Amino acid sequence: MEIEEAEFLAEKQIIEMLPNFKAPVLNLMTVTVGPFNPGVVTKAPLWLALLLCEQNRCRILPPSWLNVESLTEIRSAERAAPIFTKLPNPCFFEISTIILQKFSIEVPNADAVKALFHDILDIRMAKLDSSISAFFGSGSAHAVVNNLTSFEIIRIRSFLSDSLSRLNTLEMSANVNPFTVASASTSTSSTN
What CATH number is associated with residue 132? Predict the structure, then answer.
């Protein structure tokens, strides 16, 4: 899975929006949405809210955790805990990124929210780096890491996969006895 796919899946998450039009219930393939009434909060998938917002037909209401107070608490908890804390939404990074990039005008104190969001991301990436270093240093064949999001896994997947492949190659070459290889090639050449 790539970042774009994770964002696509995140857009299926239900958020609140404030429509400025009237329409009956929509029966979509995977969800039923509506009715839509001006000024009445309606729940809809993020992708639909984004589409309607781009057409100036609604306002996106940021999730309850996308504000200075909640993000300050999340940042404090993340700093205090040696392990990854559970985030308020499995698509925390994707949803926050989409809303902050496209509709930051809808987020009160958007600059402070962006700074806190990036702080949380940096703290978790630093934890991820130290976890990877500890894993490589331990010589273990596997590790358990709880509370990672798909966004974080995607960011480290190729690096971790390549690193493990190279370590495996190094270990295999280190286990080959150069004298055995040399004597095998000598005996092969003497029989020819």
Answer: 1.20.58.1020
59 three-state secondary structure:
strand
Confidence at residue 170, expressed as pLDDT on a 0 to 100 scale: 67
Is the pLDDT confidence value at 137 over 80? Answer: no
What domain range is 159 assigned to? Answer: 62-174
Residue 21's pLDDT is 96
Number of domains making up the chain = 2
* Residue (of 22, 66, 52) closest to 40 by Cα position: 22
Do 148 and 99 belong to one domain? yes
Q: How far apart are CA 113 and CA 89, in angstroms?
A: 16
Torsion region of 21: left, alpha or beta (phi above 0 gives left; psi -120 to 50 gives alpha) = beta
